[in-house]
Write a structure and sequence with these properties.
Rossmann fold; binds nicotinamide-adenine-dinucleotide; alpha/beta; 7 strands; 7 helices; single chain; 43% helix
Length: 248
């Protein structure tokens, strides 16, 4: 399927591995030139090399609001402008209400909420001026159904979902769509860290009986960036093998 975005430009955050890299790869396959970032120069350069000529590596840390803004500013500097923004970053530490010190909440909000605000602040004005843009935020199925041992993630990602829903309605008339994609359990480094190398889909409650394939996830992100998805905005799409059991 031709997504109609050949020649567009994208900034994809935290893309040296996992869901960010898979999203960047799907966009490159759709004809988009991407700027990707990671904190480690060797890893992000290797990732860009894997993606080929239409990928630029930037060394940026998107753990803070200013870090998020700087990443997008550098991407604009290198690409001329950014049509597509995929926000992403590392997840906060695991923990329950009982085990999580209160000082950790501000850090989690900076990492998984304010960093996205920073990226949007740098990307959205140009998208609105040009009358075309796509923002896709990689969040978590925890927004829909909080995960007991991830109280920091549950808290910060619910907040950023409220921010993005508000922005989506504000910028829709300028040709800019804003959506979130909520991963369930995918076979990435992050999941191996959380669940161990033998993560078993059946005990994790995934009806498909499989972990998610990051490559498939990347294609869902790319579809939402496509021309045909121009009427989809303010949506929060779970990609979780049916794990979420609710109706809406
Ligand atoms: P991952 O750990 O496999 O990959 C994350 C990538 O981002 C790594 O390359 C890492 O080096 C980079 N990164 C981390 N912090 C960064 C920073 N501050 N600045 C720049 N780069 C940074 O993670 P993943 O599984 O791809 O998950 C991506 C996001 O989606 C995370 O926030 C995670 O919590 C969330 N998520 C993932 C899943 C899943 O199943 N994989 C499920 C729910 C939510």
């Amino acid at each position: 399927m031709d997504l109609g975005i050949t020649g567009r430009t994208a900034a994809v955050a935290a893309a040296s591995a996992g869901l960010g890299l898979a999203s960047a790869r799907a966009l490159v396959e759709a004809g988009v030139t991407v700027a990707i970032c990671g904190r480690d120069e060797d890893r992000i350069t290797a990732a860009a090399r894997l993606l080929g000529e239409r990928a630029i590596a930037l060394v940026c840390d998107v753990d803070t609001q200013s870090g998020g803004r700087v990443f997008v500013e550098q991407a604009i500097d290198r690409l001329g402008h950014v049509d597509i923004l995929v926000t992403n970053g590392g997840g906060p530490p695991a923990g329950t209400f009982a085990s999580t010190p209160s000082v950790e909440y501000a850090k989690a909000l900076e990492k998984n909420l304010l960093s996205v605000v920073g990226m949007c602040g740098a990307a959205l004005p140009g998208m609105q001026e040009r009358g075309w843009g796509r923002v896709i935020a990689i969040t978590s199925s925890a927004v829909r159904q909080p995960i007991p041992n991830l109280i920091l993630s549950n808290t910060a990602r619910a907040g950023i979902t409220g921010f993005l829903k508000t922005v989506a309605r504000e910028v829709a008339h300028r040709g800019v769509t804003v959506n979130t994609v909520q991963p369930g359990i995918h076979a990435t480094d992050r999941i191996l860290q959380l669940y161990g190398a033998n993560a078993d889909p059946s005990t994790l409650g995934i009806p498909t009986g499989t972990l998610g394939d990051p490559a498939d996830f990347g294609h869902v992100v790319a579809f939402l960036c496509g021309e045909q998805a121009k009427f989809v905005t303010g949506a929060n799409l779970q990609v979780d093998g049916g794990a979420y059991a609710g109706l809406i």
